[in-house]
Design goal:
Zincin-like
Length: 254
C-alpha cells in the first residue's frame, strides 16, 4: 500500500470510474475517492491537498473497501494532520496592510487600512476598512481586527444557533450554553450531559451555509450522542443538503 500520493504520475480520473465515499471511524470521518481500475490489490494514497484516493478492482465490494480505509485510521489521521500543518505553514499570516485579502463568511474581502481618530472595522461590499490611529503599529491593527472578528463570531454564530434551535425544541432539547473558541482539530463539539455546544472561532471564514451545518450537527448530538446511522438519518432529515454544506469547509484553516 502506498500512503503518500505526491509521487503519482498520472491523474486517477484517467484510469477508471470514480466514486466519492464517506466512512466514519472511531475518532473522525474520512471522505475518499474510490477509483475502479484493473489492479490486483487495494491501494490507498493520501495527497498533499488532503484528498484520499483508493484504487480497487471492480469486483471488490465497497463494504470491504470501506473497512480497508478504516483499518488505517491512525495512519490517515497522522498523515492528514501533517499535510494540514504544512499547508498552514505555507499560508502567510496577515500583516494588516492595504491590499491583503481577509476571508469572512466565504468571501475574500479586500483590506484597506487607514488612519483615523476613532478605531474600528467596517465592511462595505467587498472591502474591509481597518481604521487605526497609527497605521504602522502592527499590534494595534491586530488587536482592532481581532476585536471586530470576535464580535462577528458572537453575532453570526449565536444568530444561527437561535435559528436552528426550533428544529430541536420538539425533541425536548433545552437551549444550550454556546461557547466560542479556537480549536485545532474540529469545527464544533457537543457535551450533551452538560448542555454545552462549542464552536470553532475560525469558522467565521466559512460560508454561512457551512456554519449552519456545523451548528445543526452539534445540536443533533443532544438526541444521538454518537455518529450512528440514526444520527446521520436525523441530520439528513433536517438538512438534506448537509454533505454539500460540509464540503464548503474544505480549504478553511482550522
Amino acid at each position: 500500500m502506498n500512503l503518500f500520493g505526491d509521487k503519482t504520475k498520472k491523474k486517477a480520473s484517467m484510469n477508471g470510474k470514480q466514486e466519492h465515499r464517506t466512512v466514519q471511524g472511531e475518532i473522525r470521518s474520512f471522505e475518499y475517492i474510490l477509483i475502479r481500475k484493473s489492479v490486483k490489490n487495494l491501494n490507498m494514497r493520501i495527497k498533499p491537498n488532503g484528498e484520499i484516493h483508493v484504487s480497487a478492482n471492480r469486483l471488490v465490494p465497497v463494504k470491504y473497501i470501506d473497512k480497508f480505509v478504516l483499518s488505517h485510521e491512525q495512519t490517515l489521521i497522522r498523515t492528514l494532520d501533517k499535510y494540514e500543518k504544512i499547508r498552514a505553514n505555507n499560508l502567510q499570516p496577515l500583516q494588516y496592510i492595504s491590499g491583503e485579502k481577509v476571508r469572512y463568511l466565504g468571501e475574500e474581502l479586500h483590506l484597506f487600512v487607514e488612519a483615523a481618530p476613532v478605531e474600528g472595522v467596517d465592511k462595505i461590499g467587498q472591502f474591509l476598512f481597518l481604521r487605526v490611529r497609527d497605521t504602522e503599529d502592527f499590534k494595534r491593527k491586530e488587536r482592532v481586527m481581532k476585536k471586530w472578528l470576535s464580535g462577528m463570531q458572537v453575532e453570526v454564530f449565536l444568530t444561527i444557533c437561535k435559528e436552528t434551535y426550533p428544529l430541536f425544541k420538539p425533541y425536548g432539547v433545552k437551549y444550550p450554553l454556546i461557547k466560542i473558541r479556537s480549536m485545532k482539530s474540529r469545527w464544533g463539539s457537543c457535551q450533551p450531559q452538560k448542555g454545552i455546544i462549542t464552536l470553532n472561532s475560525n469558522m467565521i471564514a466559512a460560508p454561512r451555509e457551512a456554519i449552519e451545518y456545523v451548528v445543526l450537527h452539534e445540536f443533533a448530538h443532544f438526541i444521538h450522542p454518537n455518529h450512528s446511522k440514526d444520527f446521520y438519518g436525523l441530520v439528513e432529515t433536517l438538512m438534506p443538503d448537509w454533505k454539500q454544506r460540509k464540503a464548503m469547509l474544505k480549504g478553511i484553516e482550522l
